[in-house]
Write a structure and sequence with these properties.
single chain; about 280 residues; alpha/beta; TIM Barrel; 8-stranded parallel barrel; 11 helices; 8 strands; about 15% strand; binds 6-acetyluridine 5'-phosphate
């Protein structure tokens, strides 16, 4: 798959066809941050406290909203207002995987009302391309809540030992993304997807954004099969954005830590694009 990662975020934002990708690339350039904090916390208070403290240093705030024990309207309103206050987008790591009809209800309805507040969600291609079509029909609809300003990441790899998200599965994620460029922002992938996918189905303007998770400066492996790489290594291997959870929020001083990730991630990005980007 061709990559535009040699270009600056600003240059990519200018030509990107996807509105959410444009916003994300613009705010990364503005805030000089390619950091996504994975806020795997279990109460509204902890979640909002972290978003408020780390908000200035991040591009995207990632939630697992179904682990919040006291989820309510306050959770949603708090996330929305902090996203505006600190200019970050919200990524609900829901990993949709079911049949189209079911994921539509999970995305748009239920107690969690994900499409109302999450700018970005992710999905697995396991069930085939219908899942992307189903989610896109909601995310690109011009509703009062989101005006079609929603995006999807395809889960093209997984970080865990023994992951089956490889080969034909990864290729199918790319082929499906190519069919839904107005909705698919990019991939959750361990590295750039340059070695896979059919080049004949690519178009010139293709610019999928790569989000690499399993990022941690302090340790190589986590418990339960999680595998890590450093921010610098992740960016050198093709990540446009780095996702880190415990490596940031579970440290003694998460604000200092997130600033370190921001600096390391930004310097690695500048190295890749060849110096200070144009204003
Ligand atoms: O940095 P950690 O290990 O504390 O957290 C990593 C976060 C978790 C996982 O659910 C998520 O990243 N994740 C994902 C995502 C983002 O889709 C995919 C994957 O393969 N591995 C992974 O850890 O919230």
């Amino acid at each position: 798959m061709a990559s535009k990662s040699f270009l600056t975020y600003a240059a990519r934002a200018k030509q990107h066809p996807n509105p959410i990708a444009r916003r994300l690339l613009e705010l990364a350039e503005e805030k000089k941050s390619n950091v996504v904090v994975s806020a795997d916390l279990t109460t509204t208070k902890e979640l909002l406290y972290l978003a408020d403290r780390l908000g200035p240093y991040i591009a995207l705030f990632k939630t697992h909203i179904d682990i919040i024990s006291d989820f309510s309207n306050e959770t949603v309103e708090g996330l929305k207002s902090l996203s505006e206050k600190h200019n970050f987008l919200i990524f609900e790591d829901r990993k949709f995987v079911d049949i189209g009809h079911t994921v539509q209800m999970q995305y748009d309805g239920g107690a969690l009302r994900i499409s109302e507040w999450a700018h970005i969600v992710n999905a697995s291609i396991l069930a085939g391309d219908g899942i992307v079509e189903a989610l896109a029909s909601i995310g690109t609809a011009d509703t009062v809540e989101h005006k079609g300003q929603r995006g999807l990441l395809m889960l093209a790899h997984m970080t865990t030992k023994g992951s089956l998200a490889t080969g034909a599965y990864t290729q199918a994620s790319i082929e499906s993304a190519r069919l839904h460029k107005d909705f698919v922002v990019g991939f959750v992938a361990n590295h750039a997807l340059t070695e896979v996918a059919d080049p004949t189905t690519a178009t010139e303007d293709e610019d999928f954004v790569v989000f690499t998770t399993g990022v941690n400066r302090a340790t190589k492996d986590g418990p339960l099969g999680q595998q890590y790489q450093t921010p610098k290594k992740a960016i050198a291997r093709g990540a446009d954005f780095i996702i880190s959870g415990r490596g940031i929020y579970a440290t003694e001083n998460p604000i200092e830590t997130v600033q370190l990730y921001q600096k390391e991630g930004w310097e690695a990005y500048l190295d890749r694009v060849g110096g200070e980007p144009e204003a």
